[in-house]
Every structure is written in C-alpha cells, then in structure tokens.
Amino acid sequence: MKDTNEMEILFDSRSENEGFARVAVAAFMTQLNPTVEEVSDVKTAVSEAVTNAIIHGYDNQICKVSIRCSVRGKELMVEVRDTGKGIENIKQAMTPMYTSKPELERSGMGFSFMEAFMDNVHVISEPGEGTRVIMKKSIGKERETWITQSL
User: Fold this and answer.
1) How far, in Å, are 43, 122, 131, 144 from residue 58 at the CA level?
2) Pick the catalytic residue: 17, 68, 106, 115?
C-alpha cells in the first residue's frame, strides 16, 4: 500500500534511552506533517510507555524494549513492547493513581497520560511474558476540523 510506512527499533531498557525513544518516534511521524502539539502528545505517551517497561516490566534490569511504528493514511500507530514480568490485572494497572511501586513515589498516571494524549490505547499483557502497549493517533484531525468550520 502506497500510504503505509513502518519502522522498528530495539534498545536497552535504560532510563537514558527514554529520550531516544521519544525523538525516534517524533522523527518518524514528521512524514504526517504534525503540529507541535501532536508531536508533544505522542512524545509524552511514548515516554510513559517506555518508562513503564523499564521500571515496572523489567524492575530496572537491563533487557530489551522494542518500539514498532506504522503510518497508514493519517493514522500513527505506536507499539511499545517488553518481555518483562507482565501485568497481572490490566484494569487495575490502568486506574488513575494506581502504582505497583509506591516506594518509588510513582504517580500512577502513566496509562492515564497515554489515554489522554492518544486516540486509542490498548494493553496486552501476560504475567511472566511481558506487555504490549498499542497506541493510535490520527494526525491532522484538528486542522481538518478547523478548515471545515472555516469554510
């Protein structure tokens, strides 16, 4: 399909790589001509997903995190995957203010931020197998609405 593009990166689960992940996804999405706000939203969501993989999935052990992105039409899909300990209760983990690491003074807002900044967030996880966070965002949606309303 002509309007489809994909990329995948694999990196160590080190907290200093969170910034790399944000910039890599932001660079990939530039093909959609996003607004500064759209780039910021996606970078925040990616940051939260990668941080969750490092802190909760791997307990700060050095393993691998992968990010797969695709563009289909005007939709960006970002999948952040770890092969860590997984999530026992996804519904509970996605509850605002819930954290499995209160001793680290975590806010428990990671999934809430992902849901606020992306159009769709889907979490697949198996204890002992790892977690996949799949996020989608339509790029240019606000501009199309603005243009339509201006006409």
Assistant:
1) 21, 20, 11, 41
2) 106
Q: What is the pLDDT of residues 13-30, one digit of tens each?
A: 999 999 999 999 999 999
Contact 100, 108 (CB under 8 A): no
| CATH number for the domain harbouring residue 45 | 3.30.565.10
| Boundaries of domain holding 8 | 2-136
Please identify which residue in the block is written with the tokens 């240019």.
140
Q: Is residue 145 part of a domain?
A: no
Give me the catalytic one of 22, 52, 79, 81: 52
Q: Is 48 a catalytic residue?
A: yes
Can you list the positions of beta strands (E) in the chain? 4-12, 64-72, 75-82, 120-126, 130-138
- The model carries a pTM of 0.87
Measured CA to CA, the distance from residue 35 to residue 37 in angstroms comes to 5
DSSP 72-116: ETTEEEEEEEE-SS--S-HHHHTSTT--S-GGGT--S-HHHHHHH
Phi, psi of 8 (to 5 degrees): -145, 140
